[in-house]
């Protein structure tokens, strides 16, 4: 089916396979359609149907609340065309940059899972074919029998990756969480679509790095630190990573963070923020190079970053309230411009 999209800067067209979401078809064709979550919650991918017909795979999606139904608006990440369509989009739509990682569908097999805390696990996936992605990006994962896709950020970073590592926090009664944490799943096949997301890091940026993560939001930050370390970014720039969790039993990846810091002891600072309890002195003894603070991670970051926001590119990821508080802090206290702030809300 042919899809014609008219945006503020012109008209583009692409082919959509039967059953394929319009957003996926456009991105796969190298057209940078607007999106943020890719999973029906944010409303960023809305379009107006001018001609044709679309079926909605998830009419109850939270992102539907941002639509004007009388204006025939719909979410491109949830809708599948049943005829050739003409759409209008209120924003600008460009072709993707040459050399960028164009999203595509790829099969994968779950190799292993490992418990990181009482409610967080890591997931290693073997890809059916190698995949390029930028540090900080995510994939959509679908599993047979579970409606819709879920977004998970890559922990690893490598070119032509043959495996991906995700970190997943268990959501009580969540469909994917029940499956992932419910029993042995090694060997299971899943479908992925990506890479997606604009919270990407590239060393050519030439900026000091500030990463602020809440819970499983640390996933993409690990990929960014990996990329930065491989490119010797911290020989010329500073890095500050703030990792916020509730209590000591919720922290993970401390050894991995210590290994990153050991490669750039002068330039990279790691701070762990505990919101719900005092910092156990034993943790400080085990990780003497880390900073520790009590409070919400955005508040701890605001205090420790005072006077250090110059030439900074900031990344934030985690639960939506944590990301919103961090964005306010970066804009109001850090005085960063919005093009130097990248984020993923794990909604
Ligand atoms: C950009 C981004 C990156 C993320 N990265 C991570 C990460 O690295 N680690 C992590 O733990 N979590 C991450 N998340 C959150 C993750 O995608 C899931 O929301 C979370 O794992 C809970 O999934 P669940 O199935 O257990 O919960 P559920 O409540 O069952 O589902 C949660 C989400 O699944 C989608 N969904 C539910 N039902 C349907 C349906 N019928 N049709 C279509 N879609 C449906 C919706 O987007 C919903 O918000 C990320 C989210 C986003 C947006
Ligand atoms: S990208 Fe479609 S609702 Fe977020």
Features:
binds FE2/S2 (inorganic) cluster, six-stranded antiparallel beta sheet, 7 helices, alpha/beta, 347 residues
Please give a quick description of this structure.
The protein has 347 residues and is an alpha/beta fold.
What does this structure look like?
- The protein has helices at residues 22-28, 175-181, 218-230, 254-263, 281-286, 297-304, 320-332, and strands at 2-7, 10-15, 31-32, 46-51, 54-56, 73-75, 79-81, 85-88, 94-95, 104-115, 120-131, 138-142, 150-153, 161-169, 189-196, 208-214, 239-245, 268-274, 291-294, 312-318, 341-345.
- The chain has 7 helices and 21 strands.
- With 347 residues, it is of the alpha/beta class.
- Helix 6 (297-304) runs parallel beside helix 7.
- 41% of the residues are buried.
- The strands form 5 sheets. A 6-stranded antiparallel sheet has the order 13-12-15-10-11-14. A 6-stranded parallel sheet has the order 19-18-17-16-20-21, sandwiched between helices. A 5-stranded mixed sheet has the order 2-1-8-4-6, with helices on one face.
- It binds flavin-adenine dinucleotide and FE2/S2 (inorganic) cluster.
Strand content: 35-45%
Structural class: alpha/beta
Q: Could you name the ranges where pLDDT drops below 50 across 5 or more consecutive residues?
A: none
Give the biggest sheet: 6 strands, antiparallel
**What ligands are attached or bound here?**
flavin-adenine dinucleotide, FE2/S2 (inorganic) cluster
The spatial strand order of the largest sheet comes to: 13-12-15-10-11-14
Determine Rg (CA atoms, Å): 21 Å
- SS field, number of helical segments: 7
Give the overall shape, derived from the CA principal axes.
Answer: globular
Distance between the termini: 31 Å
């Amino acid at each position: 089916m042919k899809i014609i999209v008219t945006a503020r800067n012109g008209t583009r067209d692409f082919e959509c396979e039967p059953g394929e979401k319009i957003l996926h078809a456009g991105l796969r064709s190298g057209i940078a359609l607007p999106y943020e979550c890719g999973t029906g919650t944010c409303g960023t991918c809305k379009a107006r149907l001018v001609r044709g017909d679309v079926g909605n795979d998830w009419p109850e999606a939270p992102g539907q609340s941002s639509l004007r139904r009388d204006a025939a608006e719909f979410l491109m990440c949830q809708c599948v065309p049943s005829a050739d369509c003409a759409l209008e989009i209120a924003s600008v739509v460009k072709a993707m940059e040459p050399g960028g990682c164009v999203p595509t569908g790829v099969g994968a097999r779950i190799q292993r899972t490992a418990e990181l805390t009482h409610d967080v696990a890591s997931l290693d996936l073997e890809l059916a074919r190698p995949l390029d992605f930028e540090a900080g990006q995510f994939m959509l994962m679908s599993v047979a029998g579970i409606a819709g896709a879920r977004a998970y950020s890559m922990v690893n970073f490598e070119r032509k990756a043959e495996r991906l590592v995700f970190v997943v926090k268990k959501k009580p009664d969540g469909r994917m969480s029940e499956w992932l944490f419910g029993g042995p799943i090694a060997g299971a096949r899943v479908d992925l679509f990506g890479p997606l997301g604009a919270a990407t890091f590239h060393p050519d940026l030439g900026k000091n790095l500030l990463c602020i993560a809440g819970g499983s939001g640390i996933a993409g930050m690990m990929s960014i630190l990996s990329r930065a370390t491989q490119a010797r970014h911290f020989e010329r720039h500073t890095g500050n990573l703030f990792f916020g969790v509730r209590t000591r039993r919720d922290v993970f990846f401390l050894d991995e963070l210590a290994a990153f810091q050991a490669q750039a002891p002068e330039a990279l600072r790691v701070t762990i923020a505990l919101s719900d309890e005092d910092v156990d002195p034993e943790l400080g003894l085990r990780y003497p190079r880390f900073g520790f603070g009590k409070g919400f991670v955005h508040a701890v970051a605001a205090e420790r970053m005072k006077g250090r926001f110059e030439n900074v590119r900031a990344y934030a990821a985690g639960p939506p309230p944590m990301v919103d508080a961090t964005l306010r802090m970066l804009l109001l206290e850090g005085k960063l411009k919005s093009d130097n702030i990248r984020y993923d809300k794990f909604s």
